[in-house]
């Protein structure tokens, strides 16, 4: 580290805070604002004061933007009201009709839907690629390839992408590299050091951390910030101040929470590996995961989200297992303090998902590992009874 630099755990606590400017109050104030007054016509016309309209920027928005830039090492950041809106805003701001977009085949389902059903309507050519393609992404690049969209690990099936190799090949052809970095967060994966130009977070997950607000962030390098900021303004997307406050509050404890999610998630994955009902556990931190070597090279840790493939069972047996769980809730999203489990169905077009048994997406919350394994053990007993 350079002299004066702060470690990520410290930045989580200090970034975006200016108590000296707010009467010594520790947390940034929550500004509810639409109209912001200007003292003169000259200031109004030149937009020369720091804050001009509530949708554009307020001290509350600015605090989260500054925090994300410090954490990620980015040039600039914009805030959106959800993770999906962060994905769609980043893409719309950096693509135009006639462009070619490459998207990892393991991308988050709603991101895939947006690309297939919205971007194509506006003249963007969308092509999905094998997430394990690495440097061979260069073979898919065209003269009009504008963006390569990555997500590592991939949603539901957790393929670990070789982002440095993909980025080098994409940049050689002049394309922008976007990364959905929600799984690892800036604490466990440095998007910009590994070649991304734009880092996207569904801040709904680990940044908010308590399953009570939705939020998205788009952090950019200098090359991409101007276009992204302009597109964000044209689209009119903004997040409410109370939700931004919850994200700022959540970010302060993300370091300790994420370490516990990681510890419990790995312990739970290893426990599931020993179960006869489980065919495969898909977790990048496990030594037998196909992407473990890249994960170990590029990542500083793992979050609490992973998957398990069961041996084929009747649907009624799976329902008996899941319906009776006490600690694992069935609900979408993840990253909160509670454990979750849902059946998943990967959607693929460039690759093929060949597993016949049920795929379960699991999020390890902050409950005690022994209580979680006991809950699953009872669930497997119900499953076996209904086979």
Structure keywords:
Aspartate Aminotransferase, domain 2; Aspartate Aminotransferase, domain 1; globular; 387 residues; seven-stranded mixed sheet; 11 strands; alpha/beta; four-stranded antiparallel sheet; 2 domains
Structure description:
Pathway: Amino-acid biosynthesis; L-methionine biosynthesis via de novo pathway; L-homocysteine from L-cystathionine: step 1/1. Belongs to the trans-sulfuration enzymes family. This is Cystathionine beta-lyase. The chain has 387 residues and is α/β, with parallel strands linked by helices. It has two domains: 245 residues, Type I PLP-dependent aspartate aminotransferase-like (Major domain) (Aspartate Aminotransferase, domain 2, 3-Layer(aba) Sandwich), CATH 3.40.640.10; 132 residues, Aspartate Aminotransferase, domain 1 (Alpha-Beta Complex). Helix content is 36%, strand content 15%. It is built from 13 helices and eleven strands. The strands form two sheets. Strands 1-7-6-5-4-2-3 form a seven-stranded mixed β-sheet, with helices on both faces. A four-stranded antiparallel β-sheet has the order 8-9-11-10, with helices on one face. Helix 6 links the parallel strand 4 and strand 5. The radius of gyration is 22 Å and the shape is globular. The model has no long low-confidence stretch (mean pLDDT 96).
Shape designation: globular
> What is the count of DSSP helices, taking H or I runs of 4+ residues?
13
Name the helicity range: 25-40%
The CATH topology of the largest domain corresponds to Aspartate Aminotransferase, domain 2
Cα radius of gyration in angstroms: 22 Å
Q: What is the assembly state of the chains in this entry?
A: single chain
Task: Give me the count of strands.
Answer: 11
Q: Biggest sheet, in brief? A: 7 strands, mixed
Please trace the helix and strand order, writing H or E for each element. HHHEHEHEEHEHEEHHHEHEHEEH
Category from helices, strands and their pairing: alpha/beta
How many separate domains?
A: 2
CATH superfamily of the largest domain: Type I PLP-dependent aspartate aminotransferase-like (Major domain)
User: Which strand order does the major sheet show?
Assistant: 1-7-6-5-4-2-3
Q: What is the end-to-end distance?
A: 56 Å
Give the low-pLDDT segments: none
Roughly what fraction of the amino acids lie in strands? 5-15%
